[in-house]
Amino acid sequence: MNRLSHMIIGIALAIVPTAATFAQSGEVAAAIASGEVGEQADGYLGFVRAPAPGLKAEVDAINIKRREAYTQVAQTKNVPIEAFAASIGCTTLAGLKPGRAYSVARGVWATKGAQPVALPAQCGG
């Protein structure tokens, strides 16, 4: 990982609320626990399979809040929003709990086991 990536991640950890701090309904928490919803390398939640409309709306709302937070920090640090979001995604995937769904390549899902997640190149992995 280059110096800019380390700086962005450091700023992200200090300023942006973690994924867990965004309000989650029981439905979203259950979908995450069951592996229906998972974390993506781009810093947003995604769907392992087609969701029910209510779940989709709630996850979309969480992703909108994430984008707003990412945008605020990225603008103050003059870095691209997508790069900043991806740095959060890298941090989130690196700390993912076993049993949680994740995607390092769009549309390709896995479940975190005992081993660390094999991070994509954008994460220095």
Structural features, described:
The protein has helices at residues 3-15, 26-34, 53-77, 81-94; strands spanning 37-40, 45-47, 101-105, 108-111. It is of the alpha+beta class and 125 residues long. It has one domain (3-120). It has a 4-stranded mixed β-sheet. Strand 1 and strand 2 (45-47) form a beta hairpin. Helix 1 (3-15) packs across helix 4 (81-94). It starts with a helix and ends in a 14-residue tail after the last strand. The relative contact order is 0.18. The mean pLDDT is 86.
Order of helices and strands: HHEEHHEE
| Quantity of strands, as a count | 4
What is the averaged pLDDT score? Answer: 86
Structural class category: alpha+beta
β-sheet strand percentage:
5-15%
Unreliable spans: none
Radius of gyration: 14 Å
Main beta sheet? 4 strands, mixed
User: Which strand order does the major sheet show?
Assistant: 2-1-3-4
Number of domains: 1
Distance between the termini: 8 Å
List the helices and strands and how they pair.
Elements (H helix, E strand, L loop, with lengths): L2 H13 L10 H9 L2 E4 L4 E3 L5 H25 L3 H14 L6 E5 L2 E4 L14
Parallel strand pairs: 1-3
Antiparallel strand pairs: 1-2, 3-4
Helix pairs in contact: 1-4, 3-4
